[in-house]
Amino acid sequence: MRDETRQVEDETVKWAMADVAPMSDEAFERGRVALLARIDAEESGKVVPLRRRRRIPLVAAAAAMVVIAGAALLAPSLVSQDKGPNVAAADVLEQAANLTGDAKLQPGQYLHVLQKATWSMTDYDHRWMYLQGQTSQTWIPADRKGTWLYRHTRAGGRQWLIGSEKDLPAGFESPIDSEGEYTSEGGPALHDKIEASFRDPSPEYLATLPLDPRELYRKLRDEVSGNEGLVFLQMINDGLDSGVYPAAVRSAVYQALTYLPKLEVVDQAATIGGRTGTALGVTENETTEQIVVDQATGEYLGSRTLLAKDAWGLKKGQVIGVSSVTTTVVSGAGQGS
Question: Any transmembrane segments, and where (predicted)?
Fold first, then answer.
C-alpha cells in the first residue's frame, strides 16, 4: 500500500518544504517517515497521545501506538553535526554520568521501579485535550532470568484542558485507561509482538548496546530516523522510564546526550515527584521536552513536556506530560517501596 502511495507522500513532503532551503536526500527521507507517522495517526482515528506513549501496559493491548508530541512534520535536523549541546548542559551530563550507580540486590530480592505519570490525549486537530494519571510498577528479580511482574493502574480522573467528555468521538477508548498486571520470564515482555528498541528493550537488545558515547548516540539517532532534537530526547526518556538500564548504560546515555545539538539547561531546580534535579530540554515548535537528573547522584528522576509558547488556546508553560521514576529494593514481587 505504501509503495503505491509513495509518489503522493513524496510530493506532500516537497510541498511542505517549498519555502525552505534545498534539503539532502537523507533529510527528505526522514521527512517522508515523519509524514507516514502522521498518516498512520489519522488512519487510526485521529486520536494521539500528545505526551509520549509509554510501554504497552497489557498483553491484550499490544498494538503499537503512534506518537506525536507537537513535533514538526519533518525531522528538525537536516545534517548531523555531532557538536552537542551548550557547555552548561554538557557539564551536567558528564557529572551525572560519573556518579550514576546500581542498587545492590541479594538473591530473592527485587528492584521495584515505580513510575507515576500524567499523559495527555488529544485529537489530531486539538479540538479536545485532557490529562490522565497512570501508575506503572515493575518488579525486576535479582536474577533477571526469573519472573518479572508488571502492574498498571489509572490514577485519578480526566483533567480537561480543551473541551469536555461530550467532544470525544463515539466509541472512544483511551490507551492510557488500561489497567491490570502480567508477568514475563527473563525480561521485558511483548517482543514477540513489537520490535525491540531503546524505548522497549529486550535483554538481547540491551546486551548489544555500545557503551562508547558517540557510537551509542549514532545508533539511537538511527532509531528515530536521524532526528537530533525533541523526538530523540523523548526516546531517551521513554527508555529510562523503564528502569531496566544498568548504570553502565545510563552513564553512556548521559554522555551520548552531550552530542544532542539543541539540548540546554532549562531549570536548575526542577521539582518532579517531590525530588529536585536539573532539567535539560529541547524546544521545537509548540513544545519543550525535558529530562530531569540529579547532579549529586547521577539519578534519572523523570521527564516533563511543556508548551513552549501559547498554542491551541493554552498558555505557554502548560504541562502536557510528566513522569517521575523511583527505584527501590524490596524483598518480594508485588511489594511496595
Answer: 56-79
CA dihedral 142, 196, 194, 229 (to 10 degrees): 120
Q: Strand pairing partners for 303?
A: 291, 323
pTM of the entire structure?
A: 0.77
Q: What is the pLDDT of residue 194?
A: 74
- Residue partners of 193: CB distance under 8 A and separation at least 6: 62
Asked whether 126 and 134 are in contact (CB, 8 A), the reply is: no
Q: Where are the alpha helices (DSSP H) in 22-179?
A: 25-43, 87-99
Nearest Cα neighbor of 94 from 209, 252, 238 is 252
Which residues, including other chains, have CB under 8 Å from residue 322's CB and lie 6 or more apart? Answer: 117, 118, 272, 302, 303, 304, 305
Res 98 pLDDT > 70 = yes
| 8 Å CB contact between 183 and 147 | yes
pLDDT digits (tens, 9 = 90+) for 215-258: 999 999 999 999 999 999 999 999 999 999 999 999 999 999 99
Rounded to 10 deg, the angle between the 213-223 and 230-241 helix axes is 100
pLDDT tens-place string over residues 309-323: 999 999 999 999 999
Provide the grid cell at 175. 490507551
